[in-house]
Amino acid sequence: MGRWRGDGGDAGGLDGLRRHLTGGTGGHRLRFGSGAAGIERLEASLVGEGFAPHRHDTYAIGVTLAGVQTFRYRGELRHCTPGDWHVLHPDEVHDGMPGTDEGFGYRILYVDPFLVQQALGGRTLPFVADPVVRRRDARSPLSECLRDIDEPFDDLGCLDVVLLVTEMLQKHSAARPGRRSPLALEALSRVRELIADDPVSRHSVEEFERLSGLDRWTLARQFRAAYGTSPTRFRTMRQLDRVRRLLRGGMPPPGAALEAGFADQSHMTRMFKRAYGLTPAAWAAALAGP
């Protein structure tokens, strides 16, 4: 952890993480830093119970700061120790739990695949088959943007982060066999924007076909290749984004569920836990922690 203490503006966050790991009480601690459109930064620590299996529609690129982090990913149990990175592809199911009684702490970037797609210029998203990048192999400039997660991004800073993320993904990606047809990115982008602008509304497949000019099978296949998830899953995650904003603003879960377009609170809770590994109540309590 010592290499993370060089920035004086960062000491408070790590001190809080240390207190939670050494305080003798179980639970989760989550602290969001400064972000930007399509980019989130989070500091987290877990003692005791871990995250339930879940999946999100972003790239998740994090570094372990303390303790031993374990998670099951693509059928194998993985381990990260301080200085190791983990790189998770969108829509890949994983959990997360302490490898020892002392718990673990980490910092992580969540990056919208749409931004990576823009940096790639239309190529299929890279896939990192082995999610653990050992400290000796990482040496990533991304360390700087996680050193002080409260430092705001400007426009150029956002571009730098996306390019660094893309370079890291390409460096550690496993090439998939076979040639792929070019992606109809302009058509796919219209569908993506329609969903993102109004995730509460449920649009029909026929509407997507008319908007994109693609048949439903091509649309579904290319949407996943371009953005790492399905149109249906993308809509659910945008609904959950709205739920998180409402919960952080103090709205009770039943109201947040209805406001975000879910049938009821129980439906929203199921989707929330599948996306973040915690119930809405546990997530909100973790944010409110010391």
UniProtKB/TrEMBL annotation:
Chain ranges of the HTH araC/xylS-type domain: 189-286
Domain of life: Bacteria
GO terms, molecular function: DNA-binding transcription factor activity; sequence-specific DNA binding
Keyword Ion transport: no
InterPro entries per UniProt: AraC-bd, AraC_XylS_family_regulators, Homeodomain-like_sf, HTH-like, HTH_AraC
Keywords: DNA-binding, Transcription, Transcription regulation
Protein name per the record: AraC-like DNA-binding protein
Source species: Planomonospora venezuelensis
Source organism phylogeny: Bacteria, Bacillati, Actinomycetota, Actinomycetes, Streptosporangiales
